[in-house]
Amino acid sequence: MLKIHQSAYVSLRHHAEEAYPHECCGVLLGQFDDNGAEARSEARSEAGPKTVSRIARCGNTRQDSPHNRYHIDPRDLIRIQREGRERGEDIVGFYHSHPDHPAEWSPTDLAEAHWFGCSYVITSVEKGVAVLTNSFELTGTDEADKKFVDEKMIVV
Ligand SMILES: [Zn+2]
Prior knowledge:
Layout: E1 2-4, H1 6-19, E2 25-32, H2 36-41, E3 50-58, H3 74-86, E4 90-99, H4 107-111, E5 119-126, E6 129-139, E7 147-151, E8 153-155
Parallel strand pairs: 1-3, 1-8, 4-5
Antiparallel strand pairs: 2-3, 2-4, 5-6, 6-7
The structure holds zinc ion.
């Protein structure tokens, strides 16, 4: 389960609308409610609940097809991770938008997801307006058997 503070939820949907017709992307910062180290080092079939307290926007570095692909610059990710640690926050997931496409993961999304136990949040944007926001958790033990499972998301 993913609990997301209302302010973070509102700002990620706002980011999705601003970026339209391109995809937006960013990082979800907060806490693993059980044991964060365990959630990341040991792949588990079911990770514990997480809470998102803040989002960090990222630039979309994909130049080839920015409307249906996204990529977070590794330098951005390292900076966000460091700044998060200073505030006692972990990276608990990632978000991006699907302009004029459903809020469902694509094969490319799965191929590019590597953080087991983390949440991948997708917002559909239709004609510039954010519609559905869904969360999927990356489960499995390695690249060969990884998969996304639907994750309940509640705004707190
Ligand atoms: Zn996608």
